[in-house]
Predict the structure.
Amino acid sequence: MHDALTNRVGGFLSARGLRGPDALILVAVSGGPDSLCLLHALAALSRDGGPQLHVAHLDHGFRGEQSAAEARTVAEVAAAWGVPVTLAHVDVPALARSSGEGSQAAARRARYTFLAQAARDTGAHAVAVAHTADDQAETVLLHALRGAGPAGLRGMRPVVGWGEWATGMLNVELRMLNAEDNARHSTFNIQHSTLLIRPLLETSRAEVLDYCARHGLSPADDPSNRSPRYARSRVRHRLLPALAEHNPQVVAALGRTAQICGDDYDFMQRSLDAAWPSLAAERPGSIELDLAAWRDLHPALRRYALRRAAARLGAPELSFPQVEAARAAIDAGQPRRTEVAHGLLLEFGYNSALIRVAGAPPGPDAPQLSVERLAIAAPGRTPIGDGWECLATPEPPTQPSPWWVAIPAEVSAGLSLRRRRPGDRFRPAGGRGGRRLQDFFVDRKVPQHLRDAWPILVVGETILWVAGLRADERAVAGAGEGVIWIGIVRETEEEQPHDAR
């Protein structure tokens, strides 16, 4: 017969399909009261036909021999309870110095990278961490003090998919020490689906300490948990006790706040999911937002759309001022390039806003010339950049396409593609007189971010064709003239039919 805490953990596992003996749970054990309590409860369930277990312990290298002794103790406890264990050591202070992170951020990255690696190595279905209701309350308060919305105020979630908790830890090199290997380097390139679970998230720290006392457990004491240098420690030992004087149930109240905000956040994400296909066109290195669909979004969804776009482009989480500046720029249709965050650009077209990683191509749906000027082989194929090429051939077309033009063979010598230049003018075929190229781009609604590198076919300095848009009237071949066909195509495309316009 199990006690209430163990039954609660068992119910948590059952609801997620992890209660049976076919499940393997990797248990993150620091040796402190929370993780020791969780391991003990899981071990009791395992002996009663529950899941298989594997312990994972990381020595962060903060406290020298003291933390090394804790690692040995965790190994001894796991062995006494019949649970296999994986131990590792990371010099987190050195990691923090090399990365420029704070020590706690570096420790978190090291810890979850280690857990992701151990999950892959063991084939675990879930990684169990021992965050409690008190940890949840602290997290909600910390986020509230920074000015968070529902995404932050939902705190920690009971279950998190692999793509969220482990993806950011991929391809990270850490020096690790364990019981079998001595000083090895591991490059993590993980493809897996392990869940991160928090079975104690509705259990108070008081219940955990009572459990440890009743079962004769001897948890380790980490003095850094009481250090006022850390914000979480100050919240735990100063702010929460002060709030408890006003509401003795403050931990439970903050837990309800997290649950409500979590449900609200889920609703907002589902609403954004429904709008996303018509809002966003995702390409490698960029996401294009349709402005008509953007204007249909509530301001709250606009903020979430910007955060989602940044996350999918691999950028760090945007701050509130960054989100608001980008949102205001898109709302106003700001006709210039701006920086959303370091390395993340926002550019505008007529009906779209493009968010892209600096250095990424503006978008694969239109060719962009990779250099200022490029001589064209005629006949032949000439790569122009980003998977596009210029094809010159004497063969006539079978079907029309705006990305092909027929020009008189007599002007085919010395053909080049170049980018636009200030003051460029040409005489569009079928038009009336000459036009500034800038005005032509405006009339044709060419997105501003694509104009500078748009391929323009020239002979000498005379414009023959604004690729895909219009030929100069002087370049249109007449009936019976010898012609050469110029096309701008994908390098992977077969030769496509073309159009004399």
In short: The first helix runs from residue 4 to 15. The radius of gyration is 31 Å. The first strand starts at residue 24 and ends at 28.
